[in-house]
Design goal:
InterPro entries: AICAR_Tfase_dup_dom_sf, Cytidine_deaminase-like, PurH-like. The chain has helices spanning about 5-15, 40-50, 55, 70-80, 130-140, 170-180, 200-210, 220-230; strands at about 25-30, 30-40, 60-65, 95-100, 105-110, 120, 150-155, 160, 185-190, 210-215, 235-240. The protein is α+β, with helices and mostly antiparallel strands. The chain is globular, with a radius of gyration of 18 Å.
Length: about 250
């Protein structure tokens, strides 16, 4: 029997995987996507999604946006209590509801896609085509991660994710640790702007070898972030849209 938390995680996984056009696998733990990968071979996507964080993937919810046949046998072999759910693709335009003491909070769902926004280059260095694609992929992932949220991605694959930390620096460090050496040339997406740059998250990201950073912008210290990226030759993209999922 599905538990309350099982349904919450399944919904989070389905909401995330429904964002992607390519065959994609998403693994969710405690409503956060800990692994995301897109590949024509859906089993390869599953393998890469697990690789992003194999420890967190244990006991998680696995979601696919395409029909899966042979892969189910592999998953069945990993769990004697595997439950298989089918769902229709989510529709845009829904409301987001949340109960608070004495009432409800209501807002529009975060339905924007990379095609709906402009990734504005504000640094001296323009991102390579693959870096821009990686930034868009990371941006799609980070919208489903609890703030403060950082996602590092490359080649249609999440490499590392940091979530739910009270400050953005710790989320960055968690994501960098998970990404490891693969961080070189990857793209980083932040769900909200960086309040500080020097000796803080932006400079740490630049020093790690990140190739491009996508963030909303809007900080009173945006120029510091731009100057920092220029110093290290990193592309900086402003989206003018923040996620800030709570």
């Amino acid at each position: 029997e599905m538990s309350y938390n099982n349904y919450l995680d399944a919904d989070a996984a389905w909401n995330c995987v429904s964002e992607f056009e390519k065959p994609t696998c998403v693994i969710v733990k405690h409503t956060n996507p800990c692994g995301v990968a897109s590949r024509e071979n859906i089993l390869e996507a599953y393998r890469l999604a697990v690789k992003a964080d194999p420890v967190s993937a244990f006991g998680g919810i696995v979601a696919f946006n395409v029909e899966v046949d042979e892969g189910l046998e592999i998953l069945r072999g990993k769990s004697k209590t595997l439950r298989i759910l089918e769902a229709n693709k989510n529709k845009q335009g829904k409301l987001s509801l949340r109960q608070v003491g004495g009432g409800w909070l209501v807002q529009d769902s975060d339905d924007l896609t990379p095609q709906d926004i402009q990734f504005k280059v504000v640094s001296e260095r323009t991102p390579l085509e693959n870096e821009l694609h990686d930034a868009e992929f990371a941006w799609l992932c980070v919208k489903h991660v609890k703030s403060n949220a950082i996602v590092i991605a490359k080649d249609d694959c999440m490499l590392g994710m940091g979530s739910g930390q009270p400050n953005r620096v710790e989320s960055l460090r968690i994501a960098l640790r998970k990404a490891g050496d693969e961080v070189k040339g990857a793209a980083l997406a932040s769900d909200a702007f960086f309040p500080f740059a020097w000796n803080d998250a932006v400079e740490e990201a630049c020093k790690s070898g990140i190739g491009a950073i996508a963030e909303p912008g809007g900080s009173i210290r945006d120029n510091d972030a731009i100057d920092c990226c220029n110093k290290y030759g990193v592309s900086l993209l402003f989206t003018n849209v923040r996620h800030f999922r709570h």
